[in-house]
Amino acid sequence: FGGSLGLSNLIHDAPATNADNNQSPVEDVDKINAGFLFEGGVRYGLPHTSDIGLKFDLPGAMQVEYKKLFLRDDKFPRAIGLGEGHSIFSEILNNTNLRYIDTTVPLYFSFMPHPVLELFVTPRLSTRYIRASAYPPMNHSFLGFAAGVAFCDVMLEGAVFLDFTRDMSQDRTPIKQITIGYRFGCGNLVPM
Known about the structure:
Layout: E1 2-15, E2 29-46, E3 50-58, E4 61-71, E5 78-93, E6 96-114, E7 117-132, E8 135-151, E9 154-163, E10 175-185
Antiparallel strand pairs: 1-2, 1-10, 2-3, 3-4, 4-5, 5-6, 6-7, 7-8, 8-9, 9-10
């Protein structure tokens, strides 16, 4: 059994609005700094080098994750995962209720040169279904990665994702996130 607590800063695009609070053409976007998000999670080790987890953040997102270790190595463990998430945000963008449904497939690569030091990188492919009260539903696909370091149980992670749903001629401001956190655990959990 284990878990984590963290604080993140997230920056991403959102549909632009004009002076009358009407949506501009889809090609126009505003850069949104969502501010700091409190994140937490719990993880439970399953038999056969797997674990299942639940992550949440405030203001209102939750994700269920499954992770399976496919190559056991003391210094270079590797795992594959699957995550399904749901987010509801209100009043963030011009009094618009936003709802996200995310599906993520991450690959976890770790390097542990010392028992208290772990370096990790996690490439991810994600799809996001977005429903907003003022806009038509949208589907987006993201490709990106997270990378970080954990010393003892303190973790620093950065992530960058690019929306490859858009036309290649459009500006693609990536989603960026930086997290600092503390992880705890006992027993046999799959490494980052």
